[in-house]
């Protein structure tokens, strides 16, 4: 791992973060009528439902409080201030609907979404590696062609349709799983068995439907493995009389799976994306559902906050993938810049 | 390549002779050759592959539904038919009706044009941007432009697509299907742009490009000639996959009710069925199942098409199916050098 590569990758991550935050700031200003006018109605609504009254000055104050934007300042000062509050006060404004700081709201939800995302990534990719290698070893057999057909249909089925089918069959018809929520009612939280099983029980269907996103990797693994199977060094290994199990794991497996590794980490972006739709279907209170609820009542600060956090998680995932890839695949250490 | 030196000499001389003395094909023969190479052979490969046939067939069916079908059926309206008729019960409404008395089949048909508009907008912007960025940064390798463009591509890859689209939708409230498509297609371009860029870079390294450069051709001329052939497969396959992405994204957003319900959409149908408890009620289940099946079929057609196109663009496979390929290849390659 050379230092130059490390710096470039870190720089990339910083630029992405900067771009996302700048985008959210710009979006406040690109709202029809600007931040004050577009949020005025929502704040007025909030105030009237709670039985109070407000004038324009008060509303501007509230915009400051909620969106971390001082509408009277020149734009560049607003921008610097927006950053200052984000970096030094960890503040992303205040949610209209929850009346709580956005950071607190999101921090409470992150573990649940990450729990579902990580497990569905792991399950999806494990399944695709197993299936892909089985298909490659039995290339052109009936198993291969049947599996390829199944793969096409899986690739053509959106994850939310999978989710609906799973709710219908496994939850409603068979009653094996709950249809929503993240933990059973009346279960005491903590490190007890009942709580743990309840969590897994509730997360099973969301995890299963998201893992469909990773399964299309089986096709690319099949392609990789078939390509490796035709390489000369494999023939040499056979001629050397190495055990088939060793050839399968160390020669074919390693070379076919390695290209999947970066895909795995980038897959986080896809899984997090899917959570905004899936968590609504399963009424699973993670970040996706938070964002969904934010959008239905135009809770802009919360909306922007979730976007920033979604991106940050992906940035960290990709950074980990980039920085560890060199250790796993010696060929790629420090390189990869020209691809 | 020939063995004797004399022949090599004459071949080299022929290479530099003016075009009209070498060109022995008549216009008709040339046209026939072109037809054989670019239309007949690909079609034959396509027909031999069941995936292309099924994919294209389904797509044409959807295309007809979205054009002719819309003309021949009335737009669905509430209360025009009995409520919640099951499928295949009344042949005036073969797929049944929903809880508002609208026939399912006309709803599906009338939602097709806007779906295709979204696909056009989304796949168009994704392919267009990808080609532009990929070519530019491939040509200007290791310059500031290249670095800036690739950084932008990496940034866009990293930002999770659907949450970004949701924020944009919340702020701008798009109603035009093309605009919805464009928003959804915005995160599909960077991967293809990177593929195109690395194609440009690898073609630059080829021996024949080196040769053409020595002969004094401009890089742009060489790349233009060689690129088009090599990039078409990537572009076609990625267009099909981008189309699938647009379908998934738009239907998903309509389904959870984030996009404004101004148009008929399969996702809107799913949303209304789901919200009215179709999963718990057998009488309403078909209302949810038909749009799901429709989405599946349209996606299948694009996925099959992308896989089938892969074999159409396989040059070796195509050469086997072209009648005039043998001579065609030779004179074509000669023609290339003659123009030089």
TrEMBL record, chain A:
UniProt-annotated location(s): Cell membrane; Membrane
Keywords of the record: Membrane, Transmembrane, Transmembrane helix, Transport
Presence of the UniProt keyword Kinase in the record: no
Membrane topology: Multi-pass membrane protein
GO cellular component entries: plasma membrane
Superkingdom, taxonomy of origin: Archaea
Residue ranges of every copy of the ABC transmembrane type-1 domain listed in the record: 110-321
Segments traversing the membrane: 12-31, 118-137, 158-179, 199-221, 264-282, 302-321
Any one GO BP annotation for this protein: transmembrane transport
PANTHER family: OLIGOPEPTIDE TRANSPORT SYSTEM PERMEASE PROTEIN (PTHR43376)
Family: Belongs to the binding-protein-dependent transport system permease family.
Name of the molecule in the record: Peptide/nickel transport system permease protein
UniProtKB/TrEMBL annotation, chain B:
Superkingdom of this protein's organism: Archaea
Record bears the keyword Ligase: no
Keywords assigned: Cell membrane, Membrane, Transmembrane, Transmembrane helix, Transport
PROSITE patterns: ABC_TM1
Cellular component terms per the entry's GO annotation: plasma membrane
GO biological process: transmembrane transport
Topology with respect to the bilayer: Multi-pass membrane protein
Gene3D superfamilies tied to this protein: MetI-like
Domain ABC transmembrane type-1 stretches: 116-306
Transmembrane stretches, start-end: 53-72, 115-136, 148-172, 246-268, 288-309
Main location: membrane
SUPFAM superfamilies xref list: MetI-like
Compartment list: Cell membrane
Family: Belongs to the binding-protein-dependent transport system permease family.
The protein's name in its UniProt record: Peptide/nickel transport system permease protein
């Amino acid at each position: 791992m050379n230092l130059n590569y490390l710096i470039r990758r870190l720089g990339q991550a910083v630029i992405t973060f900067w771009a996302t935050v700048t985008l959210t700031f710009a979006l406040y200003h690109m709202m029809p009528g600007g931040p004050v006018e577009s949020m005025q109605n929502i704040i007025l609504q909030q105030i009237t439902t709670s039985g109070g009254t407000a004038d324009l000055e008060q509303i501007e104050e509230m915009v400051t409080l909620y969106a971390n934007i001082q509408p009277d300042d020149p734009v560049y000062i607003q921008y610097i201030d927006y950053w200052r509050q984000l970096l030094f006060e960890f503040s992303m404004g205040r949610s209209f609907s929850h009346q709580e700081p956005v950071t607190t709201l999101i921090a409470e939800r992150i573990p649940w979404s990450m729990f579902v995302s990580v497990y569905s990534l792991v399950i999806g990719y494990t399944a695709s590696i197993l299936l892909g290698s089985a298909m490659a070893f039995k290339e052109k057999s009936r198993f291969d062609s049947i599996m390829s057909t199944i793969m096409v249909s899986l690739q053509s089925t959106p994850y939310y349709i999978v989710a609906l089918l799973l709710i219908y069959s496994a939850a409603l018809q068979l009653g094996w799983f709950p249809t929503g929520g993240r933990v059973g009612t009346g279960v005491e939280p903590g490190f007890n068995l009942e709580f743990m099983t309840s969590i897994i029980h509730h997360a099973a269907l969301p995890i299963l439907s998201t893992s469909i996103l990773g399964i299309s990797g089986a096709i690319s693994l099949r392609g990789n493995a078939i390509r490796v199977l035709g390489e000369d060094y494999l023939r040499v290994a056979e001629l050397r009389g190495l055990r088939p199990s060793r050839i399968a794991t160390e020669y074919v497996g390693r070379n076919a799976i390695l290209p999947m590794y970066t895909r795995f980490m980038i897959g986080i972006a896809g899984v997090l994306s899917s959570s905004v739709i899936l968590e609504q279907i399963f009424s699973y209170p993670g970040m996706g559902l938070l964002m969904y609820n934010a959008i239905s009542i135009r809770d802009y600060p919360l909306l922007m906050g979730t976007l920033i956090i979604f991106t940050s998680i992906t940035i960290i995932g990709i950074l980990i993938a980039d920085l560890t890839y060199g250790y796993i695949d010696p060929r790629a250490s420090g390189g990869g810049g020209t691809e | 390549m020939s063995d004797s030196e004399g022949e090599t000499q004459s071949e080299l001389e022929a290479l530099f002779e003016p075009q009209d003395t070498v060109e022995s094909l008549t216009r008709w023969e040339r046209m026939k050759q072109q037809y054989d190479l670019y239309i007949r052979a690909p079609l034959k490969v396509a027909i031999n592959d069941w995936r292309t046939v099924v994919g294209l067939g389904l797509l044409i069916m959807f295309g007809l539904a979205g054009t002719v079908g819309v003309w021949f059926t009335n737009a669905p309206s509430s209360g025009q038919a009995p409520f919640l008729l099951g499928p295949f019960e009344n042949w005036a409404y073969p797929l049944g009706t929903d809880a508002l008395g609208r026939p399912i089949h006309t709803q599906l048909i009338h939602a097709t044009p806007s779906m295709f508009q979204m696909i056009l907008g989304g796949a168009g912007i994704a392919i267009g941007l990808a080609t532009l960025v990929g070519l530019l940064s491939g040509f200007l390798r290791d310059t500031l432009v290249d670095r800036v463009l690739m950084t932008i591509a990496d940034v866009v890859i990293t930002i999770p697509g659907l949450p970004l689209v949701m924020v944009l939708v919340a702020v701008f409230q798009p109603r035009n299907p093309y605009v919805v498509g464009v928003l959804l297609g915005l995160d599909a371009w960077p991967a293809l742009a990177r593929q195109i860029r690395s194609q440009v870079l690898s073609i630059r390294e080829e021996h024949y490009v080196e040769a053409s450069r020595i002969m004094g051709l401009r890089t742009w001329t060489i790349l233009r000639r060689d690129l088009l052939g090599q990039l078409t497969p990537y572009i076609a396959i990625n267009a099909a996959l981008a189309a699938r992405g647009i379908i998934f994204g738009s239907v998903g957003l309509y389904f959870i009710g984030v996009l404004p319900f101004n148009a008929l959409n399969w996702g809107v149908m799913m949303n209304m069925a789901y919200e009215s408890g179709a999963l718990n009620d057998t009488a309403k289940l078909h209302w949810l199942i038909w749009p799901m099946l429709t989405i599946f079929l349209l996606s299948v057609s694009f996925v099959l098409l992308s896989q089938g196109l892969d074999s159409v663009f396989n040059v070796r496979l195509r050469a086997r199916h072209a009648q005039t390929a043998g001579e065609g290849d030779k004179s074509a390659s000669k023609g290339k050098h003659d123009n030089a």
